[in-house]
Each structure stands twice: as C-alpha cells, then as structure tokens.
Amino acid sequence: MSRIGIVAESAGETRVAATPTTVRTLIDLGYEVAVERGAGASSSFPDDAFADAGASVVDRSDAWASEIVLKVNPPTPDEVALLADGATIIAMLSPALRADVRESLQTRGITALALDAVPRISRAQSMDVLSSMSNISGYRAVVEAAHEFGRFFTGQVTAAGKVPPATVLIAGAGVAGLAAIGAASSLGAIVRATDPRPEVADQVTSIGGTYLPVVVDEVMESTDGYAKATSEAYDAAAAALYSAQAREVDIIITTALIPGRPAPRLITAADVASMKPGSVIVDMAAAAGGNVEGSVVGERIVTPNGVTILGYSDLASRLPAQASQLFGTNLVNLLKLLTPGKDGRLVLDFDDVVQRSITVVRDGESTWPPPPVQVA
Ligand code: NAD
User: Fold this and answer.
1) Does residue 40 have its Cβ closer than 6 Å to ligand 1?
2) pTM recorded for the entire structure
3) How far does residue 299's CA lie from ligand 1's centre (Å)?
4) 204: which of 30, 40, 152, 211 fits an S-S bond (Cβ 3.0–4.6 Å)?
C-alpha cells in the first residue's frame, strides 16, 4: 500500500490538490493519505476536516516524503529536493514550457505525470484539469467584469426609470468562453460570441448567446480538438468585427488560445480607445501573451478613456473551494485509472494513451514529448 502526500502550494495559490471528499475516495482506492498541515487553509478545508476524512495531518517534509505526491502547480527546485527517491509526482507541470521542471525531476529519478497533458479524448474528459479550471475561470471572469462595471447586467424597468441591459462580447467559445456566455446571460446581459470553429455556433445559442460568424472562404478544421492558427483573410475579417463590436459593447471577455503558440491578438489599442468610458475588458489569455493590446498579466489597468482591462491569470484560484473540489475529482478519476487493483498500488500502463500522454518522466527517464494523439 502506497502513501499519497497532499502538499501545500506556494504563496499566491489558494487551491489544494485534494479535499476531504476526494481523500475518502483515495482511501477507498487502497491508499494511505497524508495531508500537509494547513494545505487546505486558503480553500476553506481545515486540517480537522481532512483528519475526519481519514487522512493523517503531517509536517511539510513528511508529506513530501510520500511515495506519491499530489499537487496543483509545478514543484519549485526546493520542493523537488524534498521528494523521496523513486517517488511519483502528479501535478500541472507545463511540460511544453517548463523544461527546467522536467530536467530537475529527471535528475532526481522521479516519475512525473502532467495533469495538463491529458489528451482531448472523450474518455479523458473526467481527468482534464484544463477543462475544469477553464470552466471556473470563464464564470469568474464574468463576476470580475460585473464587479468592475458600474451598472446592472440585466435590463430593468423601475419607477425611477428604465435601465438597459449590458452588452457582452465573448471572443473564443471554448470551455472558458461557453462558461462566460452562460454566466453573463444568466445575469441578464445581451451576449454575443465569436470563434473560428463554426461548430460552436449551436452551443453558443443554446446557452443564450448570439453567434457572430467571421465570414471568409475557409473552414477551420481541427483533428485534435484544438484550434489552429487562423489565416490572414480570417484575421482581417475578424479585426473588422472586433472594431465594430468594441464601439457598441460594454464588456469584452477574450479567451482565445492556440496550443503551442502565443495567444492571437484580437483587440487593438484603437479598439480599446473606441470603447465607452466605464467599459470592462477581461483578457483571459493575458498569461499566454494576451488577446488585448495593453493588457498586463495579473494587473488591473484603467486606460485614459476610462476602460478597465483585467489581465488576471488566477481566475480559477479566486473560487478556491470549488476549484479544489473539481481539481481533486479530476485527480481521483486519474488515480482510479492508475490503480486497477484498488489496492493502493499505482501501475503505469504505457499501452493506454492517457497514461502515456501525461507521463513526462518515468523512473528518471525522459518520456516527453509523447506520441501525438489523433482524435477520431
Ligand atoms: P482553448 O483553450 O485551446 O482555446 C479557447 C478558444 O479559443 C477555442 O474555442 C478556440 O477555437 C478559440 N480561438 C482560437 N483562435 C481564435 C481566434 N483567432 N479568435 C477567436 N477565438 C479563437 O480551447 P478549449 O476551450 O480548451 O477547448 C476547445 C474545444 O475542445 C471545446 O469545444 C472543448 O469542448 C473541446 N475539448 C474537448 C476535451 C475532451 O474531449 N477531453 C477536452 C478539452 C476541450
């Protein structure tokens, strides 16, 4: 029987990789669970609740000394040094960008599984932390925008006068964009959304948005569920759409990402300058280079014409209890796959595409990058 360590995150991260509920399931899978003291403090999961769920609450070095360590963010060099010889770490590791993390884990002879490398196949959806966190982030982007916006989202007719609804434009209707459309329309706003993948049109309308197509003679095709870079013709037509929308709408939330590339620039400084004073932009792609000219990662900027641009990159962490619950559930679903005997023994099967795709280092051997996964 192996022991799983749930370790505390560094300052600035409010999430934790397990909750009392997910700890119970890990124990049902045959594991012992040790939680670092205070690991759930920022997400409203006190040590006592972990203890009641059957975990032991231990010191930092003890939690890190477990055979399997579960974590949200990549380990720092100091944390890598705390891992036991031959341990397995499961966390978001940004393997494509963080060669330093991969190499440090390799040097230590560790096995490292990257939660952010789960392939986009239906079977893996229940383990996909990028999707679960994007969903939360899209919702929270609307909450942040509503907080900054000095008006109602919903229209009202009151004795003191008529209030028009806010108009919201969502750029990119993937997981985060759809969550933002749902949240903004349920607050009563008029919501419009655009995305180069025409198949999202029905999804947008089904949750109360209006789909704005960018009309060009091409269809965006994707074989793996990810968007590809758009053409010059598409970008020119999209730029005209954004310029027209920027003059009309009150809120813009951008979510456009292209895996392996910097985020596409969608909203120019001229578009921002054309917006009404009091308008709000949330650039959810700020950390990937930004969809909006002038957005700054982690910052709230107010432009000379009174437009607030939010570049927050911690939107999921701003709903820490729920984010931890969904993250922890994704991890439990992965551990069910990795524990076929339900006997507290982790078995890594490289014939399984999910397990192969997420394994970055196996017993100190680099296994990154994995073979490409084709989605039918
Ligand atoms: P993402 O985070 O990679 O990108 C966000 C959105 O940006 C996408 O909708 C993309 O089309 C859009 N985009 C790219 N370039 C753009 C541009 N120039 N202008 C405007 N928008 C642009 O994508 P995501 O949200 O993670 O998911 C995209 C799709 O993949 C969704 O339909 C989702 O359901 C699917 N998905 C499936 C699985 C699975 O089956 N396991 C997992 C994750 C996502």
Assistant:
1) no
2) 0.96
3) 24
4) 211
